[in-house]
Amino acid sequence: KKGMVGKGLTIVKRVLAVRRIKKEENFKCSISLMEGANIVNLFSKCNEKVVVSERNLISFFVRSRLHRMLEKYILQQADYIVSLSNVVKNDLINNFSAPKDKIVTIYNSVDTNKFVFNSDETKKPHKPYIVTMGRLTSQKAQWHIFRAFKKFVELYPEYQLLVLGKG
Predict the structure, then answer these.
(1) Closest of 83, 6, 81, 4 to residue 49, by C-alpha
(2) Which of 27, 34, 157, 164 has its Cα between 20 and 30 A from that of 145?
(3) Residues facing residue 87 across a β-bridge
(4) Tens of pLDDT along 97-107?
(5) Is the CA virtual torsion 72, 77, 83, 86 positive or negative?
């Protein structure tokens, strides 16, 4: 829905629907990923532990005072907070007063056996490589790895950089 009223009504409908499911199923724990799901998860809380996950530097996106207050409330009321990196964790603590003792950092995992090199699963790079993964957008700041790798490869020329992501 567009507009504040439409978005607000959508959130209320979702909260009521999820709360009904949580009561029927008697959840022990509910986990949500990203802002919209975190809002619904927290406001639909019954008796379960609520785990919210932040995967971005939300200080980069949260501009309005109301939005900032909502984020602070969610982080303070959640039972646990999962951050995607220590940079995200520090952002939550420093900019949103997230309780340090509730936050754990869990990095995304990578199954290197599922990489496909040169469209042939049997062809893997002969050189050792460093992998960067993420959309090639300004938000992900991939240019830092490119600049750092340029200096790194001067010292270790046997390495290759493998870039995974769209953009």
Answers:
(1) 81
(2) 34
(3) none
(4) 999 999 999 99
(5) positive
Sequence-ordered strand ranges (E) for 18-79 = 29-33, 49-54
Residues 6 or more apart whose CB falls under 8 angstroms from that of 149 comprise 130, 159, 161
Query: How crowded is the C-beta side of 119, counted as CA atoms within 13 Å?
Result: 0
In SS3 terms, 91-135 reads as: HHHHHHCCCHHHEEECCCCCCHHHCCCCCCCCCCCCCCEEEEECC
Distance CA 167, CA 22 (A): 39
CB of 78 closer than 8 Å to CB of 108: no
How, if at all, do strands 129-133 and 160-164 pair? Answer: parallel
**H or E segment at 22?**
helix 3-25
Task: Count the neighbouring beta carbons within 10 Å of the beta carbon of residue 9.
Answer: 12
Token output for 38:
């975190």
